[in-house]
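Review form for a predicted model. The reviewer records the input and the model, then writes brief findings.
Reviewer: anonymous (R2)
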Amino acid sequence: MVILLVTPRVEKALEWRELLAARLPGAELRVWPEVGDAAQVEIALAWKAPPGVLASLPSLRLICSLGMGVDHILDDATVPRDVPIARLVDPNMVAQMSEYVLYAVLHFHRRFDVYDRLQREQ
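Model under review:
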């Protein structure tokens, strides 16, 4: 099985590859843009893949988002519509997203945006 890690941040993909290699000993893990033979890639683990990259993988059977959302995948009009798309569900990511939403609500509820503007305007 050939898995391609696709993200504009190659250093992150290399970290993912190192962590996955220990857990998927039979898989060949490639990091974009070093795709090799594109016809061998069956799974893409993606975060903000450049448009057209996923469509260039003719044997693709699964696309998995490396984040909680999949909008970054669906925004690419060339993504094959017959390939299933999955997303990560991780308790730590859920907690981080909840904290971010709480921050955003409090930011505007407490009018920090106004204070920031006033401070910039002196």
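Findings: The beta strands are 2-6, 28-31, 41-46, 62-65, 85-87.
Further findings: The helical segments are 10-23, 71-74, 91-109, 112-121.
Recommendation: see findings above.
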